[in-house]
Amino acid sequence: MRSNDTDIEELQRIPQHIQGPPQLPPLIKGQKLKSGPYTITVTDEMVAQRERENLELYKAWVREQRRRNMLPEEDADEYIGDFKEAAIRRSFIRKVFCLLTLQLTFTIFVISIFMFVYEAQKFMIVHWYLWIVAM
């Protein structure tokens, strides 16, 4: 009994008319639709398909609303919402610098081989055209 009272109170607090996304009109099984010169009877499969389409429209609308609510009005069209969070930005920057460090380490390793190993120096002198290819 108590849960019914709380459910009713909850429903009363929720605004009754929430402006939502534009949706396709609902279909009812057995409904007759005019399509050109033909009359089509709505099936369960058609009803389920329409519900899936409306659900996808709703999900896209919710994502857009979240993005707009997260951003200032002037940046709403240009800025992707998730990157606004500091933790995500820091994680991205950390990954980029990690990749740059790995690339620099690999480059130093390869250059040091050709600077300090006599056989590698000799190989590059004999095959001078590889310098041009490497550039």
From TrEMBL:
Origin: domain of life: Eukaryota
Transmembrane segments: 96-118
Keyword terms, alphabetized: Membrane, Transmembrane, Transmembrane helix
Name of the protein in question: Protein lifeguard 1-like protein
